[in-house]
């Protein structure tokens, strides 16, 4: 019984901690490549889209409101939504997606070109 009290707990040696540290390092690297880097890429793309907005672009807000961009200021935008052309003002941070009208025109032109090539064959 006295033997239990006199035995000091053994210290963990460095060699027993290395596998745990290695596993922790691998998990940290995995986390960075699967979570942090893709999120940074999405943030950069979103910021670029917001900076390249033009009047006339169709946008979708985080609340699901779809409208045509009418006015851009430093931190706010105004869109016209619905057939009644109701102006609504939002903060730029509320924009989820920017659908450029130039991209829509280019996409429809590509579809027409593909159809004409199929008809030629």
Account of the protein in words:
The protein is α+β, with helices and mostly antiparallel strands. The protein has 2 domains: 13-51; 54-121, SH3 type barrels (Roll). It has 3 helices and 5 strands. A 5-stranded antiparallel beta sheet has the order 4-3-2-1-5. A hairpin with a 4-residue loop joins β3 (76-81) and β4. The longest helix is centred in the first third of the chain and has 38 residues, at 14-51. The protein starts with a helix and ends with a helix.
Question: What descriptive keywords fit this protein?
Answer:
alpha+beta, elongated, SH3 type barrels, 3 helices, 5-stranded antiparallel sheet, 121 residues, 2 domains
Describe the structure concisely for a colleague:
This protein has 3 helices and 5 strands.
Number of strands: 5
What's the rounded overall pLDDT mean?
80
Shape: elongated
Structural class determined from secondary elements: alpha+beta
Count, helices: 3
Distance between the termini: 95 Å
What series of H and E elements makes up the topology? HHEEEEEH
How much helix, percentage-wise, in residues? 40-55%
The residue ranges in which pLDDT falls below 50 over 5 or more consecutive positions are none
- The CATH topology label of the largest domain is SH3 type barrels
Count the domains.
2
The amount of beta strand, in percent, is 15-25%
User: What is the CATH top level name of the largest domain?
Assistant: Mainly Beta
Strand order of the largest sheet: 4-3-2-1-5
Main β-sheet, in a few words? Answer: 5 strands, antiparallel
CATH architecture of the largest domain: Roll
Radius of gyration: 29 Å
